[in-house]
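Two folds, back to back.
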Amino acid sequence: MPPLGELVPKVILSDCKSWEEIGKWFFNLSKDCVEETEEIKNCVIKLTEKKSFEDKIKSIYHYICKNIRYVGLEMGIHGYKPHKASDVFKFKYGDCKDKSLLMITMLKIAGIPSYPVLINTHTKIIPEIPSPGQFNHAIVAIPYKEKFLFLDPTSEVFKFPQLPPSDQNRFCLIARKEKPIFIKTPLSDSTTNLRRRIIKAEIDKEGNLYAEVKVEPYGIYEAGLREGFRYLKEIERRRMLERELNRIFPRTELLNLSIKGLGDLSSNLEENYSFKTSGYGT
């Protein structure tokens, strides 16, 4: 069901006059956190050297998703103010606004402008009542092809340029030195979220089913497979898939399982497995 906050009566109070006021406040709060160091510069050069505009963004985004762990440290002013990019890069962890500001810093070094974005991933924002308390998350916006490309470096399983579903079709505030922008994030179409299965199956004279399956997931299905399998050992992955298959085909034995590209966001994910179901034809 929808979140409780969207169903029950409530009173919201705010002394903010406009979203522009909030956007400038957050920009000024964050700007001194964009701190360039030699270590960050060397990393950016290594990631982006001789690459196109889009590939530079992709390399930086994938680096942060893979190497900077999400840890929420929201004590005192840091409930709103990000930690310095140099600290986040050094210690390899941070919350959503920390990871976003590190990405903005690295993009700046690469010559690519970008902005911090405030968004709510759980409940709908009420546009008529400007308030920083309506936001619970921070992502990044990059001017791209006369629009904005939104990326969430907090995600560790969504590859470039995908945006997690919780960030899609949401009101957000792009914090800029110039006029901040109150806008909605895009919504992915159905072709982005797709799972294609290629199955070869046969039944022998005893009624036993033999099947070879190739799964090509995209969008939320690819992210879901990464999330479910990436920290599991091989035996645990086999056990999980065999259990799932037995819900559909009782008496199933998993014969083989391989997953390509599980630990690399720049690669397409592909799952291949084969199984035998005894007595299926009876």
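---
second:
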Amino acid sequence: TIFRVLEGFHMDNFILKYLHQHFDEITPQAFYRNLFPVGELETKGKQETGKYNAIAVELLSAEDKTQAKRYIVNDDLKQIDTLLKSDNFIIISPISYAGKSRISSNARFIYALAFDMDVITSQAQLTDLFYQFENVILPTPTYTIFSGSGLHLYYHFEQPIPCFENIVKQLAKLKKALTTKIWNKYTTDLYTSIQYESLFQGFRLVGGITKDGNRTKAFETGNKITIEYLNSFVDKTSTVKEYTYKSNLTLDKAKEKFPEWYNKRIVNKIPKGNWIVKRDLYDWWLKQIKSGATVGHRYYCIMCLAIYAKKCNIPFEELEETAYSLVKYFDRIS
């Protein structure tokens, strides 16, 4: 009975009604199979060169001391079926990773760019959003996910994008520019306070629990896309200029074509180089936080502080102390 009441409330949502009227719903299993085609991820219990895994994170109840639990999603996607039975909040990124951690340095391939549209308060805003998709004002998402109170827009690449550092930086810039365009005055009340998210942001599991106790739902709303397609919607200063799609080049062929690289990275296992900058950058950003942080951007402020700390070789202990010292300030402006 409780389930029927919740489901009835869920169906009354104008966003969900609109999606059902205009598009075909797909199951969570079909969504993730499309996102990660057969043979794309690693086979369970088997290490395969050039293949990696998706990672899901389940946020547990406050009583559970572990707070969060990670799950490796292999090529068979059986873990998705298990997670769909959970009543806990679960996030997953359209990205494959090496190892068991979702840290950005472990990211290997990006299968889609995902955007959060969390504040759509009227039928007019929703209709205008899809009007802008249809009239090539905004790029049309491959999948539109009903998140419970808003939308998650997935732009699924025809071929995965390798997470090389130079490509990641450009993609982050592109995503920010597209977010600015999508969060416009016709589509959301928060167009003057846009919430920018990391390229590696995790999103609610399709078919997973929402804040109101219902389940997210996926709809096919467009085609797979390319970087060239997304580039056409932003200013040239925000386009991805240097990029490559996932290569089918094997390690043996790489050894033949790039012997110097092979000897350096594979044989001698010399890590990629990196450079450190002065702590002035870290101190500058800390001043920016204290003078201009706003509600809706606090997580972003701390995320960037951590990034600058890493780049400036600031000890973790100092970063941690600084971050916690900002809590009272953040609480005051909320």
